[in-house]
């Protein structure tokens, strides 16, 4: 009863807030102007693709294997491709909103309090490297590679939690009990095992970067992953490449799924125009959804090198659900492929990491313009600092249900608080058995860059965050988080956006990195991230957030030792860390599910000790 009263009061406050914000548009526009894309920008091109049906899939039980042999092949020759986009600067057109000079001082936000007092919190360990390495049954037993970092997907219904990390996935009850899995991604999708440790070895398909989404409206689960074909003898990456999609047949993710693929090779072999540097791969598929569609955005890299910019794929959600619910039926809708790479060239470089938004369960948003999906992206093209972000809108998404969909992608750029390239993250000193055995000192966590992280569209506001450099005068630079709350709207047929909430997460003397923000339908949220520094082993942490307040930094689960994986002993001593975390509102709206990397006190393998932690926080 108490929760119901609290939720009812919050709904009233949220609606009043939105009315106030909308009434104040003109005032905010003067302070934070949005700038429509310049006429010199290339219009995004569209191509219709066919979605290929692969078949049925189910999760399997865990194998129970716990050891590796001394001669086992542990690290894939098809190394992790995730890297900062190689951005190209266009010097002929000055940016309409110029970024700050490269010499601008980094942000210096006030440090937040750190607490272990966590009311309304529950949590449990998620998948670890030990689980991912040992996943697999039958022909997939002992076929997994040792991988870093743990790219982490998470989605949840009121009854299940889908936990997916790197190349393994598991379904849990909401109390953390594993119901099925861990299952290798390759086994789930019916691909060849990562490696058959025979003499000579046989290498299988490369998969990476899992993301998942539970759609409360249709009661179906969606899962995506990057796929690259591999030469069986050498393990070298080769064409074709795909984004793989799985959709559950029912609301129970332990049951049957149906799998699909989008060809991302872009070399002309699928009947579409060839892109530069291709054959290519669609790195780190990012996912979103509105009432009409399911959306995927990728960073396109050539298999032999070169960056081609962001690509967006729009698919009928109704078509996917119907095909998954009726295994014998065909998927009849088309996939719209949009090359958005050139859109931001007048603002400094090729578009990258355009994050689609998801929505929590509640009143549907984005119904204007015959259906609209919103995205956010950052604009630091030089790896220094910037004070701009881009808001994107894909309109006419209802047409995705037609035989010839016709959507339109536009964007606007707004000023934001300053953010910039983050720095390597320090760790608390402690035992490092593997690094010590290799003659290496403790390493630094790799904070990657300041690309936009996961986006959620709740109570009319788009929420997201980026890693950023922070620095107090006279002290060493650290890594913190810059977060954004953006109100998008259309006026006179044009897209506009207002920054209605912004700020930083920073802890004096310590580091926080890789944020994900989950927000419920009435605008109450929690941000997940890692906390690490001289006083903290890499730990799972979170912070309450809304339009009206932010809270302390809460330690969800303290790290037990330093990161000590095989990437830490490279010459640069940069330990690969989770390229992204995850956060999502429970469909009942009463809590937020969070997942992030930390170092647990649980069984490890020789080559890595990373783990993940799943939290549930009342709002």
Biggest pleated sheet: 9 strands, mixed
- Quickly name the level 1 CATH class: Mainly Beta
Distance between the termini: 15 Å
Q: How much of the residues is beta strand, in percent? A: 35-45%
Supply Rg. 23 Å
Tally of structural domains: 1
- Average pLDDT, all residues: 89
Number of beta strands: 36
Which consecutive residue ranges, at least 5 long each, have pLDDT under 50? Answer: 1-41, 86-92
Structural class: mainly beta
Q: Within the CATH hierarchy, at the fold level, what is the topology? A: Neuraminidase
Classify the helix fraction into a percent range: under 10%
Number of helices: 6
CATH architecture: 6 Propeller
Shape: globular
Strand order of the largest sheet: 1-23-22-21-20-25-26-27-28
Description:
The chain has 619 residues and is mostly beta strands. The chain has one domain (44-64, 115-618): Neuraminidase, CATH 2.120.10. The protein contains six helices and 36 strands. A nine-stranded mixed beta sheet has the order 1-23-22-21-20-25-26-27-28. A hairpin with an 8-residue loop joins β14 (237-248) and β15 (257-263). It is globular and about 60 Å long.
Describe what is shown at a glance.
Helices cover 9% and strands 42% of the residues. With 619 residues, the chain is mainly beta.
Descriptive terms for the model:
globular; Neuraminidase; mainly beta; 619 residues; 42% strand; disordered N terminus
Write the layout of secondary structure elements.
Elements: H1 2-23, H2 25-31, E1 34-36, E2 45-49, E3 52-57, E4 114-115, E5 121-125, H3 129-134, E6 152-156, E7 160-165, E8 168-173, E9 178-184, H4 185-188, E10 195-196, E11 202-203, E12 206-215, E13 220-230, E14 237-248, E15 257-263, E16 280-289, E17 293-302, E18 307-316, H5 317-325, E19 335-339, E20 355-358, E21 372-378, E22 385-395, E23 408-420, H6 433-437, E24 444-446, E25 455-458, E26 461-470, E27 478-491, E28 494-505, E29 511-519, E30 525-533, E31 536-545, E32 553-557, E33 574-576, E34 582-585, E35 591-598, E36 611-618
């Amino acid at each position: 009863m108490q929760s119901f009263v609290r939720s009812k009061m919050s709904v009233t406050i949220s609606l009043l807030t939105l009315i106030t914000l909308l009434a104040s548009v003109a005032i905010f526009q003067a302070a934070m102007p949005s700038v429509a894309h310049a006429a010199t920008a290339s219009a995004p091109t569209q191509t219709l693709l066919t979605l290929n049906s692969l078949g049925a899939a189910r999760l399997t039980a865990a194998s129970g294997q716990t050891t590796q042999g001394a001669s086992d092949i542990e690290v894939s020759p098809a190394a992790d491709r995730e890297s900062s986009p190689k951005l190209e600067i266009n010097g002929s057109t000055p940016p309409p909103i110029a970024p700050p000079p490269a010499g601008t001082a980094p942000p210096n936000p006030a440090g937040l309090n750190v607490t272990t007092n966590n009311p309304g919190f529950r949590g449990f360990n998620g998948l670890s490297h030990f689980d991912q390495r040992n996943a697999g049954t039958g022909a997939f037993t002992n076929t997994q590679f040792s991988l870093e970092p743990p790219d982490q997907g998470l989605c949840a219904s009121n009854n299940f939690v889908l936990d997916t990390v790197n190349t393994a996935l598991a379904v849990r009850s909401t109390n953390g009990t594993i119901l099925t899995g861990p299952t290798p991604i390759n086994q789930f999708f019916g691909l060849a095992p990562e490696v058959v440790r025979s003499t000579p070895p046989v290498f299988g398909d490369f998969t990476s970067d899992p993301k998942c989404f539970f759609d409360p409206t249709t009661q179906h689960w969606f899962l995506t992953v990057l796929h690259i074909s591999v030469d069986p003898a050498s393990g070298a990456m080769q064409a074709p490449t795909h984004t793989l999609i799985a959709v559950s047949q029912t609301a129970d993710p332990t049951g049957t799924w149906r799998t699909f693929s989008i060809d991302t090779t872009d070399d002309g072999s699928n009947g579409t125009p060839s892109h530069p540097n291709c054959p290519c791969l669609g790195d780190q598929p990012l996912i979103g959804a509105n009432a009409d569609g399911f959306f995927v955005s990728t960073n396109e890299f050539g298999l032999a090198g070169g960056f081609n910019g962001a690509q967006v794929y729009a698919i009928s959600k109704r078509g996917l659900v119907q095909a998954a619910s009726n295994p014998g039926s065909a998927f009849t809708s088309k996939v719209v492929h949009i090359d958005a790479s050139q859109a931001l060239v007048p603002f400094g470089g090729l578009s990258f990491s355009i994050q689609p938004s998801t929505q929590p369960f509640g009143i549907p948003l984005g119904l204007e313009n015959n259906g609209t999906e919103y995205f956010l992206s950052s604009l630091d093209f030089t790896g220094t600092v910037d004070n701009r972000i881009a808001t994107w809108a894909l309109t006419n998404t209802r047409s995705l249900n037609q035989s010839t969909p016709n959507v339109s992608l536009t964007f606007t750029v707004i000023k934001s608080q300053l953010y910039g390239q983050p720095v390597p993250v320090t760790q608390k000193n402690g035992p490092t058995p593997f690094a010590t055995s290799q003659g290496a000192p403790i390493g630094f966590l790799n904070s990657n860059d300041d690309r936009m992280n996961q986006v959620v569209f709740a109570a009319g506001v788009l929420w997201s965050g980026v890693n950023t450099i922070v620095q107090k005068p006279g002290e060493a630079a650290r890594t913190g988080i810059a977060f954004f709350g953006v109100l998008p709207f259309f006026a006179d047929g044009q897209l506009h956006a207002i920054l209605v909430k912004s700020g930083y997460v920073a802890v004096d003397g310590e580091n926080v990195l890789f944020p994900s923000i989950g927000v419920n339908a009435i605008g109450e949220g929690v941000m997940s991230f890692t906390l690490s520094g001289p006083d903290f082993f890499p730990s799972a942490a979170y912070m309450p957030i809304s339009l009206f307040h932010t809270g302390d930094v809460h330690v969800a689960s303290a790290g037990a030792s330093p990161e000590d994986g095989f990437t830490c002993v490279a010459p640069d001593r940069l330990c690969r860390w989770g390229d992204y975390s995850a956060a999502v509102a429970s469909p009942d709206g009463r809590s937020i599910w969070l997942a992030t990397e930390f170092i647990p006190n649980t069984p490890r393998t020789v080559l890595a000790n990373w783990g993940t932690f799943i939290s549930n926080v009342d709002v």
